[in-house]
TrEMBL record:
This is Peptidase M12B domain-containing protein. Keywords: Disulfide bond, Membrane, Signal, Transmembrane. GO terms for molecular function: metalloendopeptidase activity. PANTHER family: ADAM A DISINTEGRIN AND METALLOPROTEASE DOMAIN, DISINTEGRIN AND METALLOPROTEINASE DOMAIN-CONTAINING PROTEIN 29.
């Protein structure tokens, strides 16, 4: 249940059907302005290699986060498919920085979750502390490493609606899992670890509505998608599932299915996937369509 709640706080409506609808996150109050302060090993005692610690003062408290760089978040040669004006498909393999996505925990809360990116300057991501989720992002044009921390909305009514959607829609697209050994070092303060975990190899399709909302800015769209994907991977890591991004497709000209009803869109999308994604031989993949309904 906590995994579903975290997805809701993230602002992503996941209908458990391979179709994801993006919504705008909601906040309880104005943000706290914070300056993360690096904590050295001598100040807090020695941590295992690779772990970094920061103090984040917000919500009337000083929180100490411990984070470590993720490995294997993206495919080594991540294919991104787009379309020409004439409808021909194009494949590119843009450089994806993969050493700036972090996961971790908040000191004093063994069930906490931290998922951050530093790829685009400053910290961007979420922190979940005592069942409360916060979004953190850099303050634009700050010269002193200032960040904004928002408390995210988690109204029970909204969560109940989301949970109902899960129950009504049965998943019909296949997920392929592969069990592998987990070589991650167990942390004495961090309980989000499993001896074995499973892998979801995923292809994400960006629909034309979302592409237009981003003003057809491929770079910004991909930046935000990578941050979201890092968060999703962190959430599922809690239950021993590793999510790997193996491919992306952006419907740059038009939508190839009707996106106005979850059930109908699911059926159409699964058929489109079988006809278009599966023949590309990317592997045994779970595919999701990332969209925003037109206003």
């Amino acid at each position: 249940m906590k995994v579903l709640l975290l997805l809701h706080w993230l602002g992503v409506f996941l209908s458990c059907s391979g179709h994801i609808q993006i919504e705008h996150p909601q906040y309880h109050s104005p943000p706290d302005v914070v300056i993360p302060v690096r904590v050295t090993g001598t100040a807090r005692g020695m941590k295992p290699p690779g772990w970094l610690s920061y103090i984040l003062p917000f919500g009337g408290q000083k929180h100490i986060i411990h984070i470590k760089v993720k490995k294997f978040l993206f495919s080594k040669h991540l294919p991104v498919f787009t379309y020409t004006d004439q409808g021909a498909i194009l494949e590119d393999q843009p450089f994806v920085q993969n050493n700036c996505y972090y996961h971790g925990y908040v000191e004093g809360d063994p069930e906490s979750l931290v998922s951050l990116s530093t790829c685009f300057g400053g910290f961007q991501g979420i922190l979940q502390i005592n069942d409360i989720a916060y979004e953190i992002k850099p303050l634009a044009f700050s010269t002193t490493f200032e960040h904004l921390v928002y408390k995210m909305d988690s109204k029970e009514k909204q969560f109940s609606t989301m949970r109902s959607g899960f129950m009504q829609n049965e998943i019909t697209c296949r997920m392929e899992f592969e069990e592998i050994d987990n070589s991650t070092l167990k942390q004495s303060s961090y309980v989000g670890w499993w001896i074995h975990f499973r892998i979801i190899e995923m292809v994400v399709v960006i629909d034309n509505y979302l592409y237009i909302r981003y003003k057809r800015n491929d770079s910004k769209l991909l930046e935000d998608l990578y941050v979201i994907f890092n968060i999703v991977d962190s959430i599922f890591d809690v239950i021993g599932v590793k999510v790997l991004l193996f491919g992306l497709e952006i419907w740059t000209n038009k939508n190839f299915i009707v996106i106005d009803d979850v059930r109908k869109s699911l059926h159409l999308y699964c058929q489109w996937k079988l006809d278009n994604i599966t023949p590309r031989n990317l592997g045994d993949l779970f595919s999701s369509c990332l969209s925003v309904f037109p206003e």
